[in-house]
Specification:
The chain is of the alpha/beta class. It is built from eleven helices and eleven strands. The structure holds adenosine-5'-diphosphate (ADP) and 6-O-phosphono-beta-D-fructofuranose.
Length: 320
């Protein structure tokens, strides 16, 4: 192993830069040359890259986004695209690769490994929905961004005695919704993992709260459920409480990473390089309790993860 590549793929996440920095610096520390591939698998297919040095990753630890940029690359999902990427990797003399991204990106990492390029995945997505790991880079920063925005919405909602419906990100997963609901004292977190008539249930909760003298209501909706504007209208119509919907959107993907994200990203980046330097590929790095571990990519992709029922229960108890 002499020369390794690193790329970021899929949706960006705060902390990706910290992971890139860790891969570059630990690679150099172990005597490897490190190549930064631009714009995800697109850059690998088209040979868009730069040679990294310890200095090229200076002053990025605290920055959101990814200095290598990221992309969703449809071409790479098909066999000819994977072959092109593999041949380019050989042309630029890569012996290994680190892919920082979500589970879509890991499917690509598995394909690259199968094609013959030892590849390691590092989990980074604000959705925190990769089954084999307790934690994905970006989650904590996104939670704090959402928490900050919701605290501000709460100030104005209280002044007007309004109900606030806030939609947070999470394409198929309700992790951001459940965590911020608890952290911000919401009446309900509506998530894709739970199937029930949430409109009726939410209206009942708000009406019950009114009987108990509640002057303010906060409802968190995960993006994967959607329909927050329609829900706000129904709440207003059925309860008579003025209701506003806010969709937080991409604000949750940016910003300076928290300490938790910087540290996890740094540890995971070093772990990935250690695997490659020992000649190990086709692994995904993961966090289990406080340890950094790794799994076979396919094994990792086949794992399932369910919403922590204790969290849901806590949120319900506290929303009285
Ligand atoms: P994330 O990595 O955040 O889950 P995506 O699902 O959009 O994001 O995947 C990112 C990229 O990974 C895709 O644009 C594509 O290049 C690659 N990818 C996704 N799924 C596959 C797949 N099944 N096989 C090969 N590559 C894939
Ligand atoms: O996977 C992270 C995520 O932010 C999801 O929460 C969201 O559904 C999706 O990416 C949005 O993707 P895009 O940036 O393409 O709009």
């Amino acid at each position: 192993m002499k020369r390794i590549g690193v790329l970021t793929s899929g949706g960006d996440a705060p902390g990706m830069n910290a992971a890139i920095r860790a891969v570059v610096r630990s690679g150099i520390y172990y005597g490897l040359e490190v190549i930064g591939i631009h714009k995800g698998y697109n850059g690998l297919i088209h040979g868009d890259y730069e040679i990294m040095s310890a200095r090229s990753v200076s002053d990025i630890l605290h920055r959101g986004g990814t200095i290598l940029q990221t992309a969703r690359c449809l071409e790479f999902k098909e066999k000819p695209g994977i072959q092109k990427a593999y041949h380019m990797a050989k042309e630029i003399k890569l012996d290994g690769m680190v892919v920082i991204g979500g589970d879509g990106s890991f499917r690509g990492a598995r394909d690259l490994s199968l094609a013959g390029l030892p590849t390691i995945g590092i989990p980074a997505t604000i959705d925190n929905d990769i089954a084999c790991t307790d934690y994905c880079i970006g989650f904590d920063t996104a939670l704090n961004t959402a928490r900050d925005a919701i605290d501000k919405i709460r100030d104005t909602a209280r002044s007007h005695e309004r109900c606030s419906v806030v939609e947070v990100m999470g394409r198929d997963a309700g992790y951001i919704a459940v965590y911020v609901a608890m952290a911000c004292g919401a009446e309900a977190a509506i998530i894709p993992e739970e199937k029930y008539d949430y409109v009726e249930d939410t209206i009942k909760k708000i009406k019950d709260g009114m009987m108990r003298g509640k002057a303010q209501n906060l409802i968190i909706v995960a993006e994967g459920v959607g329909g927050s504007v329609e829900l706000a209208k129904k709440i207003e119509k059925e309860t008579g409480i003025e209701t506003r919907a806010t969709i937080l959107g991409h604000i949750q993907r940016g910003g300076s990473p928290t300490v938790r994200d910087r540290i996890n990203a740094s540890r995971m980046g070093i772990h990935a390089v250690k695997l490659l330097k020992d000649g190990v590929g086709n692994r995904v790095v993961a966090k289990k309790k406080d340890s950094i571990v790794d799994y076979d990519i396919l094994e990792g992709l086949n794992m399932t993860k369910s919403m922590e029922s204790e969290l849901l229960e806590c949120s319900k108890i506290l929303s009285m």
